[in-house]
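Shipment paperwork, digital attachment
Item: protein structure file
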Amino acid sequence: MNEKEQVKQYVQLFERLSEQAGKWTKILLVFLIAALVFFQAALHIHSLRPLISPVDRLDGIPIKERNVKDWHE
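Attachment content:
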């Protein structure tokens, strides 16, 4: 096999690799966007929110301003 045939073979391998990498990148991008939409929609369901987001449990209990005596110190 001479040098030109080797170079041609390497170029073909590179083209196949770049096509497959592009295909997998598109699939991964679509999957991540779908997961983002799914999880954002699931966060609006109050019964699912504590299961998805551990931060929601740290939110605390809302207080009423009139019940706090030293609010404006």
